[in-house]
Amino acid sequence: MAIRSSARIMPAAVALGAALVVASVPTLAQDGDRPEIVWLEQNAGNPYWDAQHSAAAAAGDDLGFDFRAVSGNGDPASQAATLTQLADQGVSAIMLNAIDPTATATGVAYAQDNGVPVISLYAIDPNAAASVTFDEIKVGEIAAKNALTLLEARNGTPTGQVAVLTGIQGQPASDQRAQGFTDHMAMQEGVEVVAVQPTGWSADEASATMQDWLVTYPDLSLVYSLSDTLAVPAMNVAERENKVCTRDADWSVNPGCIIFVAVDGIFVDEVVNGRLWATQLYSPEWTGFAFADVANAVVTGADVAPETYLDALLVTAENADCVAAMQNEMAADPASFPFEGSLADIATARGCAVISVE
Length: 358
What we know:
This protein has 11 helices and 12 strands. It is of the alpha/beta class. A 6-stranded parallel beta sheet has the order 2-1-3-4-5-11, sandwiched between helices. Helix 5 (172-186) links the parallel strand 6 and strand 7. Helix 6 crosses helix 7.
């Protein structure tokens, strides 16, 4: 992930193992004079978010701040109320992954006015002390360009019916990630986006949606999922009907199968195994460290750019084995893993191919 701002990234990884508390009502738990940084999440139970929180907690151990993650309970109003509570508690900073930025706007202003800086994650918020996000439009465009090559391989031309599993409507990370894909597909003659379905980032909703699509769109060629955590349950449903294209059994032997592509890389092993045709690695460990480092820089008064954009790393069959090994190393031994530079830089240093669809 290239970083296009002056925000720094932690020079080295640190060991995992700090305890997390995910609760609907936070309690103050600072250690002496150490700053306390709180990650206000959208909800609890998502494995990608859990991995990020663990990495941020480990960053706190290394950088000298206390960390905890609290849940917004999947509800914009509940998350907004918790944001105000955290500001009243006087925590040192709040890392906010907003469900709906409009719902938390008043809370962001309240926190800032009361001396509690807010670091916006996955969305640019001009009223926050700093914002860190992926270039989601670009991520969607890359997914679309790669999907077109798959559709061409399947159908002889880049044509076919496509559906999109999204997250939460109104959330920038979801809306922009989908927009980059659908806007690019709208310019392609012969590609029809037949459905764009919000799931609330819920595996159960992804499964139910896929079950409906199998009936409603019998000629569906490809599904683009905004998270691996949505793609896998959807694939599991389709697989029960023998409707998943794999590298071992693609459209040449299973003409009615569906190609699945996704984003975030939490299940990059599915690309290795050949069920998922592509994902884009965000690396929860890398981003957890990066987000926490920016928050710590804000708390300690370092020079931090107001906006930081991150780039993901495209993973296909060509580089999946190497990238999966890299990601596993990050997760298994972060204490010795060198996190300097972008994910593309780290991949290149390990001999992994960096795939371009430009």
